Automatic annotation (TrEMBL):
The lineage of its organism: Bacteria, Pseudomonadati, Pseudomonadota, Betaproteobacteria, Neisseriales. This is Magnesium transporter mgtE. One of its GO terms (cellular component) is membrane. It comes from the Bacteria. It comes from Chromobacterium violaceum. SUPFAM superfamilies: CBS-domain pair, MgtE N-terminal domain-like. Residues 63-166 form the Magnesium transporter MgtE intracellular domain. Gene3D superfamilies: CBS-domain, MgtE N-terminal domain-like. One of its GO terms (molecular function) is magnesium ion transmembrane transporter activity.
Amino acid sequence: MTVAYKQQSADRLQESLGLVQRLIERQRQLEHLATRPDAVETAADPLALQHNLQELGHKLSQLHPADIAHVLEALPLEDRLLAWDLTDPSRDGSVLLEVSDAVRESLIEVMEPDELVAALDELDADELAELAPDLPRQVVYEAMGRLDEEERGQLQSVLSYDDDRVGALMDFELVKIRADVSCEVVLRYLRRFDELPGQTDKIFVTDEAGLLKGVLSVRKLLVSDPDTLVAEAMATEVVSFHPTSRRWTRPGLRTLRSGQRAGGGRARRAAGRLTVDAMVDVIREESDSEMLNLAV
């Protein structure tokens, strides 16, 4: 059964962090008591250590991966590694995606290669690409071996771009449709999905060759007459980035109308998309870097 985890509000998250910190502090106290010569007399419950660890693990199991990341980042290294050891291994990959680079490095450092490969098993190609620079090369190779041919090609495509290029941030999960079908056909097509890719607020309209013709917002789709053709409802002015452009530079950002050509007369191909999460992560990383530079 799939469990849906909901991110907590800022206040609730601080409460959760405080509880985790108290449980870890109690764990240290119990461990100290256990090492004393009179441990038998001072320990009220011989199973207190195990019970406290179980309570800590249970609390972590109730948190969203992003909230676990917040908790890990707030803890000193020794306490962080204790909490990480008690995190459900099936969620390791999701948590590694959420933590900062420095914390991610400290977590990966204590993981065995087989644990890392297992953590990557549930990740998409673009998510794996995000972690790849921080992983041992052999782990990346093993993880790639588990992907199908299409996903492997997507991963290799992302890894071919430097970190400061737009292509390194591409998400390959995008919904594409044709312009010559009706909105009713599109709705029937969407209902075939178990769930839509995260942050899907628009659908990409392409031709037979996969060239981008426009976008159809989900909001527009829902209020349009079912018989309306996608070509009539879609927006033809599209914000697009070239994969080799530097992130967020003016030359890399273009607003193009359908039918125009981009860069040297070549048509645009819908290779991937940039999500809000990816952009926010970049902004956060750059802000953290600036703060560190100011502190030096």
